[in-house]
Each structure stands twice: as structure tokens, then as C-alpha cells.
Amino acid sequence: MAEVTTQAPAVELRGITKRFPGVVANDDINIEVRAGEIHAIVGENGAGKSTLMRTLYGMHRPDEGTISVNGNEMHFRSPKDAIAAGIGMVHQHFMLADNLTVAENVILGSEPHHGPLLDYQAARDRISELSKTYGMALHPDRLVEELSVGERQRAEIIKVLYRGARILILDEPTAVLVPQEVDELFRNLRELKREGVTVIFISHKLDEVLAIADRITVIRAGKTVKTVDPGDVTARQLAELMVGSDLPTPETRTSTVTDEVELAVNDVSLRGLGDRWILQDISFDIHRGEIVGIAGVEGNGQGELVQVIMGLRTADGGSVSLGGRDVTKASTNNRREAGVGYIPEDRHEMGLLLSAPLWENAMLGHLDKEPFSHGVWIDKAGARARTEEMIKEFRVAAPSADVSAVALSGGNQQKFIVAREMTAKPNLLIASQPTRGVDVGAQASVWEAIRVARGAGMALLLVSADLEELIGLSDTLYVIYSGRLVAKLDPSKVTPEELGSYMTGARQAGGDGAAAAPGEGTDDAAAADGAAPEAGDAPPVDAGLEDEIPPGEAPL
Amino acid sequence: MRWRRLAVNVVAGVSALVIALAISSIALLLIGHDPITAYREVFNYGNHPGQIISVINAAVPLYIAALAVAIGFKMGLFNIGVEGQYALAALFAATAGAHVHLPWGPLQILFILLVAMGTGAVWAGVAGVLKVTRGVHEVISTIMLNTIAVGISAYLFLEHFAQPTSATNLTTQTPFLPKNAAMPALVHSSAKIPEPLTSMVFIAAILGVLFYVVVWKTKFGYNLRASGTNFEAARVSGIDPRAMVVKTMLLSGAIAGLVGMTQILSFSHAYTLDFQVGLGFTGIAVALVGRNNPIGAAVAALLFGYLQVSAQILDFNGIPKEVYLIMEGVIILSVVVAYELARRSLERSEVRRAAEATRRLAEASEPLAKVEA
Amino acid sequence: MAIVERQVQPAVPAGRDPLGKMSKRQRALLVGGVLFGLLILVRYLANTPDLTSSGLFNATLVSTLPIMLAGLGGLWSERTGVVNIGLEGMMILGTWFGAWAGWHWGPWAGALGGALGGAMGGLVHALATVTFGIDHVVSGVAINIIAAGLARFLSAYAYRDPATGGSATQSPLVTGHIGTFDVPFLSGGHIFGWRSPDILGWLELKKIKVVSDVAGPIHGLTSNVNWLTLIAVLLVPLTWFILWRTRVGLRMRSVGEHPMAAESLGVPIYRMKYIGVTVSGLLAGFGGAVLVIESAGIYREGQTANRGFIGLAAVIFGNWRPAGVMGASGLFGYADTLRLRSTASPHGLLLFVAILLSVVFIWMIVRKKPTAAAVSGVLAGVTFLWYFGTDTIPDQFVFFTPQLVTLLVLSFASQRLRPPAYDGKPYRRGQQV
Questions:
Q1: Which residues pair with C180 in a beta bridge?
Q2: To 5 degrees, how large is the angle CA B230–CA B235–CA B239?
């Protein structure tokens, strides 16, 4: 391999600035990626990583700044130009057509051919060759819909390599993978590196970045903070670089847990297709004033558990009761009326009527309550007034209650949903990924709102992929794995690392029925399970301010 | 915001009309006619009360068909099957009305209307049920159901419902309705007025008002629109959008059932072999041009009615009256395109305004309050 | 014809049953064979010899073509992700321009004129849905209305002279002939002036059980074949070849499946959709022209009689594949032809349906699907009763067989259908997910 130091950097970004209406997504970004290295770019959601990479890939042009590839300044007008310069991008959401074969997906756009005819044999040969060179087994004739997530990612990488890319951008590649697949991916990346490919790795998962990257550039609020070597920093230091000195931590402090059970889930089971169990014998309680967190790698049943509690799916066994009332057979609407609020994980798909004005969005799920309706009639004036209040109180950046939801930024849409659900003062609030894909400011205000609600005696179910959020906010923490609750942990004593090992099934404890086999060294966390913690045994950190804030008042 | 929205849409509608006029002019020029003469003839039409009555009579069934389509659109359902629904409904209503005699006129009329609504609802309901239970897209199912309706009604009409023809009665038709089932004419025909003004215009107006109130003012209407905007979000919010699909299709079909009633109750008093077809498809056009709004649809229905009726006069001048068909077609496409462009421009300006609000908010206050360390 | 399923045959697809299950092609052949056998059985049970006569199949070929061409048109459009409800309108344009060009310059010009007329409709649909991004169904409905209006308007002008036999609703006769041929050896065609033996015709006349019933249909499909018919039939493998074997074909299909992916790889989305939708109109228009030239000899208002919509049904029933479209159209054409030829034969077909439903009933019991079994069982019972309780079947019921069959397929076998993933969704350039 060539001497990295003497060679021109594979990619050099100088003073990149990109503005969108009302926001500066990238502000004077400077990054140098050496040839043949794995360079990680880390930052919080909304820090501007994706915007930057889209600029580099030619998907839009920077307002200021220059891009150099291998020492030559480039002006990309489209991804085509970037591809020609040897840059390839693996998107977070796979760009693969399910109904086409791997080969068809890979060659699309630059097909081997005889005249107008496709040369499938040449395509197959080339793909097999690439799979062999980089150790990525993949059959070219398989339909993409038959592939696992990890295999799809490999198909994406091969697609990029097929186009002769020597610089690979991977946008949040591990977000959709299970741990084994992450290991496999990292093996592939090292293989690529050995073959001299430069890899740019976007992530906000610090342990992964530290494990794979040669150098790490941190981006915060659209600016480059620093480029560091992984050997010189700890995860903690990286995190601080990412979020700034005053790390907003989602801690809840004083316990407000009461002994009134609001939600009781008993032996809930759910069968999927082909008699596979999606959920099995799930039991837990949430008390008023308690936040119960559910940790788990995506796809282990947490989504379905929420659907069962919301009445969006019918359980095949077990019962759910709210405030002592059995609601196992109740409709979603009845549960809503009984005081269940819901912040769904996907605000566009499940949370908003994008093309409708905000005042109509404010009613969604709360139509039967004051001030939204009287009898069969809706009350537009009342709804608009309430919406204006919500906008003010939760600091949603919206010009008026008449603006369409689609016009708001992601963070403001999320704040609006939180405002809607909180304002209804539910007895139980289910928050699914409440801060996914929002900026730091919105994240902090969502956390604050959750804490205030808890202080007011609300019962909360928090499902999140953000382990710090879970540990910081929850009073009780469960781990879901393969549709079972495999551990009940004390968030004050557990570390993200320990949590991670339960989530991946590497360790099992407590739970119900799951074989308790804490192999090596039973630690505090594992020991904390078993008997339900008494009400109010959450960690007494310092006396919080939260209790003094009257419920419903502006948290910020 | 409201006014801006209205202004943009009016501009879009008017420019679409201008384009339609231009293309029709080209068509006329191509075949060697002076479009100005043609337009003068058409514009001069409608001075006589009789002519106005003819336009309204033509507009009423179009308006009802448009409402049937529009209520589907409001929940994101495309009911292409109004055509089949009203054909079946008219046949059943005419037949039932001829065989069941009720003592009081209004009751008899109400009975006929209810049979029509019920038949239309059932036929449209099939598409609704297929959608929620079997996942069959309503566009495909209603297209297929249209042809099936044509087949079934032809069979029933010819083989069972039509009265036997005889030396005295040569026309193939269902028996005449009883005398008391004739809708009273609002204006009677006379020497100057070729056809009476149908009182179905009242029913149409009531339907329009009901449509507005139900869709925009009630919780049911909210649920309907919410399900149409975002099915999944509606479900999560506690609405049962599957039930809404069936209810909306039933409602749409019920309205569709009334489309043929103008002809049956006001004019022919029986289902005849030459029963008017095609109103369902024109109704889609009227709904689109009228933006699925009862007032817009009224304007559009009158426009289409006017075009159809006034075009007859062109034949006297040797200009093919069929030019109105071209006009109708072009209006639909250009109006839809114009509205789409208007929608995009409005959305862009909204995004801009919201972004400005974000900036103002950020400037007005300190950086979003930090959660205390 | 080798138009079945995945062209790139996996060597040994991982995760599949290793016991060498039948390929989809073999399965299709088996099902086809069994159905044909059942048809022969019914022909004897119900004593309806016409079911397998060469005359019926010859007529079926003619009535199948317009539907099949509309269906192929639908396939081209939907494979690039544009739903085409406007097939009916494009077909109307095909009939009008086909008749007009045919009247002036003869039948071959008519075929070309019809295709171009339809392509014009396709172009308008592409402009509306691709360039302006309006709803596909809305545009399609509009095109149907425009086409009907335009045809009437043009007729009122072009055919106004009654001396030619034209009127506002009808064109003058298209004169001149498109030649026909018989396939050598099978049906006695000529080779270099030598008349080969008509083996199938001879076999059919022999009236040997089963043998004659197999010979009849094939004879019907291979004798007295119109050259336009040949071209139309060849369009099926051609469509498959272009869409599945060429670069532009792969790109077009990718646009219907995942336009974002295609665009990110530099595929010009709009151009691909324009090609698909315009060719769609071209084929539907050709179908209209065939209707004029091969069947009627003139343009008549309302001539298409919903064949565009039936073509759409054939696309669905044929699972968005060329061979499937051909098979579905053949089925629809067969039913339509039966209806026109006699009342006894459709009645015999009831028995066919009843037996078929009984097979489904038994199959569903084996598969342990009680509701599906109950539905098919009841339907089978009703059909048997209907068959034994009556002597004829109303004409009007056969008329909507294609629609009914499509509705049933969609209702009970939709999980087997595989429409293009992005079919019917408006796509804007540079759109993300």
C-alpha cells in the first residue's frame, strides 16, 4: 500500500457551508480523509453529517467551500459525477429494488452489454469476482426480497464497488444491523481497507466508531469540532465533543414512583406468521409517576408490544389493564378515552396528518375531548386556540395554527406531537423513540416534558434505541430480546455496556422464564432484578428542580 | 393564508379554462371554422329562461355524481364506480316504484329515493368490503363492478323488469311510476320553455349543504378526512379507518344512487332503454374541477351543463357541436395540472414561512434553554 | 414460448426446497395441461363439441388480440410505475385513427395510424403524470373522456359526407386486405408454392375422441392466420425480450420498482416513464386498429366496448408478465367468443367452472383453510345446481366474465400477485423515499 502520508488526501473538504431555508446545516466544515483509512464522522442526530455526505456525493451543491478528491478540486453536479470520481455511497435506507435480482440491482445504470442487450454472464462473473476479492459472499441471481438485512447491505457495498468506487461512504450502516451482522460488516470493512479502499463511516454509536475507525472527526451543530485518533480518546470524551461541554443528560433524579399501578401487562403473547412467537409471556406493571424503559435491539418485539398495549394488534394470550380496568379487548379509541397517550416512533407515518393544518393535527387522537368537539360537532375555534397555546407553551416553531404540519422541521413536528399528547394529560403515556432524528434542542425539551409528566404522576412507557436516554430517564428498565423480557434492571446501577450485552442475548437474567444464566461475575445490575423494586427505590441523585415545576407549565 | 390559498386556486382554475379555450380553438381552426363565431354563439346562449332551465337540468345529475365522487376523494378513495352504481340504482328504484304504491306522493318519492340510495350503497359497499377484507384496490374493483353492473342490469331489465311490449306499447321500459311519484316541476314547460325545471335541484342543494356540514363540521367528517390523509396515523389515533372505508363507500354509493333520479322522477317516469349513461365519469370530472368542494362542484356542474346544452346551438351554424366534448376533456386535465402546480407553490411558501418562524424563535430567545447540568 | 418468471435462473437458490421442486414454467405448463384436459372432459360430459372446435379457437384468436394488445400496453406502462386507466381512451384513438388512415391508404396504413393515434394518447398521459406529477388514475379517466370526445368531434368533421358511408358515429369501410396464411404441415400452408398436407384439419375431421379435440384448437390457431395477428402475437415475446433482456428494459423495470435507487444510479427516470407510457399507448392504439381492420372493417362509436379495461384486468390476472397477459387475454377472448357463437357452449362452461371450484374446494381442505374451502365449496355447489337446473346461461352474464374473474382473483389470490413495487405512485425527480 502506498505511503499514506505522502499521498494527497483521498477527500478534502474545505470550508463547506450548506444552507437550507432558515437553517445552516453545514457551517464551514473542514475534513481531511487520508487514502486507505477508515474515517469516522460522528455527531448527534441533526448535527449535519448526512447533509455533508450528500454534498460530497453530489446530491446537492455546497453554498460555499471546495471538495477535493485525490488532490483535484471537484465540482459535482450530480451523483453521477461523484461516481465518476470514484466515490460511492451506501445509504442508510437501502436503495435496492426487492423484485429484481442482486445482479440486476448491482449493474443497473452501468450494465455490461452487447449493443442494446444485457450481458448477464459478464455481470455474474464480475460480481462473483468482487465477492471473492472482498470476502462478501452473495449469490448474484437471488432476488433481493429473499436477502437478510446484512446481505442487503453487502449487495449495496458490491453495487458501489462494481462502479469502481475507491472511496466508500457508509451512512449509519449499523443502525439496522444485529450485532453479529455488525461484526460481519466490520470484517468486510477491514478487508476493503486492506485492498486500499478509503471508507468514510458515519455514525453516532461511539463504541462502534472507536472499534473500527482509524481517525474520527466530530461534528456538532453543523461545524467541525475536532479530528482525533481513537487511541487518544475515551467514549466519554467523544460524547462530550459531540454534544458540547454541557452534556444534556436525560436524568430524572428523585423518584416519584407511587404504589398505584396504572398499567398492568400480564402474560401477553403474540403470534406472528407461521406460528412464530413475536411476544411471549410478557408481564410488567407501570405505577403512577414511574417511567418504565424497554431496551432492545430493534425488531425484538418492542414495536409489537406497544401495538398490543395501544390496541392496534390483538394479543393471542394474556391481558392488559389500565388503572385496574381490563382493556384487553378494548379498541384503540376506548383506550385513548381511558387516558392513554402515544408518541409513535415514526411521526410521519403514524403521528401526523402532514397536509392538514396544525389545528387539525392537534385533534388527532383527542377528538372527543374538550375543546376539540361538542357532541357530533368539531370546534374549530376551540381547537385553534388550544393549538396556539400548545405552540407557545412547547415552543414549537410554527407561524400559526393554520400552517400545514408538513411545513415544520422534524424537531418541531416531534415537539408538536409531544405537546399534543402531554396537553391531553393522559394517565399513561407511551413514548416510542421520542427523540429519534431530532436536534439536540428538541431532544432536551422532549426529555424535560417527560420528566415533568412523571412528576405530575403520569405513568410512562419509554421505548428507545438510545441507551443513555433509557438509563437516564427510566425508573425501571426491562430488556426485551426475541419477544421476551429477559432482564429487569436498575438504571442507576447498569452501564450501557451491560445493557448492550443483555440486548444482544449474550447475557440473560431474571425476566420471566428465561434461563437465568449470568455466566461470569453476577454484577449489581443482574442482581437488581428479581423482586420488583419497591416504589420509590429509584436513585436519589440530587434533589431535582422538576418537582417544583407545576405540571403542564412550560418546561423551558 | 386563506385568501392567498383561494387566490392561487382561482388563478389556477381560470388559467386552466383559458388553456381549454385555446386548445378547442385550435381544434376548430384545424377543421376550418372560426372559433370566435363559435364562442360568440355559445356565450350568447343562456339569455332565455328556457335555456337556463335546460342548463340547470343538465347540471343537477352531474352535481350529484360529483358529490358522490368527492366524498370518496375526501377519504382518499377513488370511486370510479358511480357509473355502475347509479345504473343499477335507477333500474331498481324505477321497478320498485312502479310496483309498490304508497298513498301519499312525497312518501312514494321518498320510497323511490331510498331504494335508489340503498342499491347504490350496496353496490359501492362491495368495493369497500373487498378493500378492507381482501385488500383489493377500489379503483380496480369499481371499474370491474361497473361492467358487471351493466351486465346485471341489462339482464334484469330485458329478461325480468321490462314490461312486455305489445302492439300498443312498443318501447322497452319498466312500467310507468304511479302518478303521485312525479316530482313537481318548479317551472312548467311552455311554448318558450322546452323542458320543466326539475325539483331535484332542491335535493341536490340539500345534498351539497349536508356534504359541507358533514365533511367539515362533524367528528365523522374529521375522521373521514384524517383517514384519507394518513391511514396509519388515523388508526394509531383510535379511528377505525377500515370501518371508515366501508362507511364512506356506502355513503358515496348512496349519493350515486340518486344520480339517475332526475331522469326517472322528473322526465321519463320509467327506466327506459335509452337511459342516460356516462354521468358517473363526467361526475368525476366535475368533482375534480370543483376541487371536491360542494360550492366548487356546483360551479363546475353548471359549467359542464352549460357547455353540453349550449353546444347544441353550434350545429345550426354548421360547427360540430362535439367541440364541447374536447373542451370538457381539456378542462379536466388542465385544471388538475393547474391545481397541482398551485398546491406545490403553496406548500413551498408555507415551508418558507415556517422556516422563518424557526429563525425568529431562535433569534428572539436565548439558544434553547439548556437542561441544567 | 419461454416467457416465464425469473429469466436469470438461480443455479441452486439457497434456502429453497432441495427436493428439486418444479420450476414455475413447468408448473404453468402442468396447470395449463390439466385445464385443457378438463375442457375436453367437459366437452363430452356436457356434449358441447364447439368447446374444442377449430372454428371457435380461430375466432378466439381474433377476439383475444385487442384485449391482449391493450394488456401488453398496460404492462409497459405499469412496469415503469405508471398506472394506465387511460388504455380505453388510447384504444378509442386507435380505432378512430386506424379507421381513418385505413380508409385513406389501406389496412396497413390503418394499423400504423391506429398505433400512432394511441401513442398520442400515451404521450398526453405521460405529460400529465410524469412531467406534471398528477394522479395517474385522474389523468387516465380524463384521457378516456377526451378520447371519446375527440373521436366524436373528428367523426362529425371527417366522416360528414354520407356518400362515403360515414356519419358522426361511424367511418366509411376500410377496403383492401391484409393477407392470411396457414402454417405449413400443421394446417396445410404453402411452402414455395407447394401445398403441404393439412394434418390437423384432417385429424379434427376424423372425430377421434380426444385426438380430434386436441387437434381442433391447434388447427384453429394455425390456419387462416392474418399477418396482423402474427405481428400482434410476436409482440408478446418481443415485449418480454425488451423488458427483461435489454439495458433499457432493465432500467424501465427498475423505475417501476424503486425509482429512488434507479435515479441514484443515474437512470433518467422521466425518460424511462415516457417511453413506457408512450409505448403503452402505441400498443393499445394498435389493439384498436386491429379491432377495426380485422373484425369490423369500420370505426364505430363505442366499438372498444371496455376492452381497454379488460386489458387492464388481463395485466392484473396475468401478474404483470407478458405470457400471463397473453394467457389471461386468451381466457377472456375465449369466453367472449363462446358467448357470441352459441348459448349452449357457455352453459357447458358452467360445468367446467363447477368442477374447477370443486378441485379448489378439495385443495383448500387439504391445505386446512376452512373459510376458503367453505366459500369455494358453496360456490361449486351453486354452480352445479345452476348447470343442472338450466339449459342456457344469460348472455349478459358471460359478458362480464373477465371482470368477475379478475375480481375473484384479486380477492382470493392477491398474495400471489406481484405488481411493480412503485406502481401508481407519483414520483418527483430528486425525491427521497
A1: C226
A2: 105
CA distance linking residue A492 with residue A540, whole number of Å: 9
The pLDDT-based confidence of B351 (bands split at 50, 70, 90) is confident
pLDDT band at residue A22 using 50, 70 and 90 as cut-offs:
low
CA distance A119 to A143: 18
Q: Do C13 and A111 touch (CB under 8 A)?
A: no
Distance CA A153, CA A156 (A): 5
Compute the average pLDDT of residues A457-471: 87
Q: Tell me the per-residue pLDDT of A156-174, one tens digit each, with 9 for 90 and over.
A: 999 999 988 899 999 888 8
The C-alpha cell that represents C295 in the structure block:
373484425
Q: Collect all residues of chain A within an 8 Å Cβ-Cβ radius of residue C6.
A: 101, 141, 143
Cβ <8 Å between A80 and C246: no
Which tens digits make up the pLDDT trace of B27-73? 888 888 888 888 887 788 777 888 889 999 999 999 999 999 999 99
Among left, alpha and beta (phi > 0; psi -120 to 50; other), residue A118 is beta
Lookup: cell for A398: 410554527
Pick from A254, A234, A295, A240: nearest CA to A432: A295
The three-state (H, E, C) secondary structure of C265-319, written as one string:
CCCCHHHHHHHHHHHHHHHHHHHHHHHHHHHHCCCECCCCCCHHHHHHHHHHHCC
Query: For residue A307, how many C-alpha atoms fall within 13 Å in the half-sphere facing its CB?
Result: 17
Residue C15: the pLDDT is 40
Q: Where are the alpha helices (DSSP H) in B80-165?
A: 82-99, 105-134, 138-156
Q: CA A364, CA A404: separation in Å to the nearest integer?
A: 14
How does pLDDT run across A345-363, given as a tens digit for each residue?
Answer: 888 889 999 889 999 999 9
Residue A514 has pLDDT above 70, yes or no: no
List CB contacts of A345: < 8 A, sequence separation 6 or more: A303, A432, A433, A436, A463
Region A46-71: what's the mean pLDDT? Answer: 87
User: How far, in Å, CA of A476 to CA of A460, rounded?
Assistant: 11
Cβ proximity of A355 and B229 under 8 Å: yes
C280 pLDDT above the threshold of 90? yes
H-assigned helices in A32-148:
49-56, 79-84, 102-107, 120-134
Q: Are B320 and C156 a contacting pair at CB < 8 A?
A: yes
What per-residue confidence (pLDDT) applies to C10? Answer: 35
Q: How many CB atoms lie within 10 A of CB C381?
A: 14
Indicate if the alpha-carbon torsion angle C369, C375, C378, C383 is positive or negative.
negative
Region label for C207, one of left (φ > 0), alpha (ψ between -120 and 50) or beta (otherwise): left
Closest CA to A92 of A201, A239, A12, A179: A201
- Which of A247, A364, A404 is the closest to B237 by Cβ? A364
Task: Sort strands A23-33 and A11-20 into parallel, antiparallel or unpaired.
Answer: antiparallel
Mean pLDDT, chain B, integer? 86
Q: In 3-state terms, what secondary structure has residue A242?
A: helix
Specify the DSSP class assigned to residue A245: S
| C213-243 pLDDT, tens digit each | 888 888 888 877 888 899 999 999 999 999 9
- pTM for this prediction: 0.84
- CB of A176 within 8 Å of any CB in chain B? no
Using an 8 Å CB-CB cutoff, list chain C residues near A143. Answer: 6
Q: Give me C82's grid cell.
A: 405508471
Contact B328 C149 (CB under 8 A): yes
Chains with ≥3 CB–CB distances under 8 Å to B: A, C
pLDDT at A252: 54
| Mean of all residue pLDDT scores within chain A | 81
What 3-state DSSP class applies to B220? helix
Q: Grid coordinates standing for A390?
A: 400548545
CA A246 – CA A401 distance, rounded (Å)? 34
Extract the C-alpha cell encoding B11.
Answer: 388563478
Q: Which of A4, A161, A181, C419 is nearest to B137 (CA)?
A: C419
